[in-house]
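pls read this stuff:
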Amino acid sequence: MVIQNSKDIIGELSETNIFTEKKIIANEGSEIVFMFPGYGEHYIGMAKELYENIQIFHDTLNQCDKIVKATKSVSFIDFLYYSSDSQDSKNQLEKHSLFGVSLFAIEYSLAYTYIELGVKPSAMIGYSMGEWATACIAGSISLEDTIFFILEQASYIETLPSGSMMAVPLSENEARKYLVPNEIDLAAINSSKVCILSGTLEAIKKTKAIIRKDKHVESLILNSTYGFHSYLVEPIMSQVSQLAGKIKINTPKIKYISSLTGDWISDNELIDSNYWARKLREPILFEQGIQKILNKSYQVLLEVGPRQTLGLLLKNHPGKQEKQMVLSSLPHLPDSESDLDCFITTLKQLAQIGININWEKLYKVKD
């Protein structure tokens, strides 16, 4: 699908009676939560069709790339979209510590695009690194400072020993039975039935075999080079704290959940430089945080980033109400469907429930 101009999309929507269907959201944005995924969900080419077809997204991603180039003298967009060798692109992004900032830039650009089109959140939640997007979109940290922090932190992370992470189909209590000091740590509580463990690859493989033997279930080793949220990151925590002390922090204009506490972020936490180091070391309390969101009865839970991992966690969540919609921005698997089709389908669904989408802003990128 290629958007030649806004008339294409408006014409199509008129044919499907989008503009005449019953509206059930009274106030723009009053029912919407943005959810930002974390590290490991990235892939070469993510959101490329949006970059090539949607002017707002294109310009915002370019803005992020310009800030990165001023620091690193390389373009993450070139590696992400314009290399003929995807493996070489991946290697280059890793070499220049750009995977993290490229994930943030995609999420930030998606969120900014939604907001410009009229999809405005009243709350947000970020999974681990996804919290950078929440903090930036909420106005707590400027775009320039966010990118600076991510790039600097990435340079510290590069000095760490390699590690690994693994999703286990166990409750928190069950998962804790397999923790070993200075070997395996609890990295995240994703749901009542899924947790993440972190440690060295050797320890992760050993634990996977033990869990298979004990529980007769299969665990999934994740796409991670480092053992985030474990003892393996402790050597850089003081550096991260010092780095956070250089960043100007503002009171958020949009409330959001802290991945560290699983509760609404407070001003005291934001201004505590140790918070940002603890966020890298301690477990992600996603299950606790998302329960806070679900208890508020927000109608739309919109995943703003690559894949649909958070949405899949939510669709089967026992606390999710029937009226609560879980929507995604991009396909779960690369090449499984068009990025643009997925994004436009979500906009249509939002329009059907009463969100006033500014279709006139959906223009093809000018040559």
Observations:
- Confidence is low (pLDDT under 50) at residues 14-29.
- The first helix runs from residue 6 to 15.
- The two ends are 17 Å apart (CA to CA).
- The domain at 6-18+32-161+228-361 is CATH 3.40.366.10 (Malonyl-Coenzyme A Acyl Carrier Protein; domain 2).
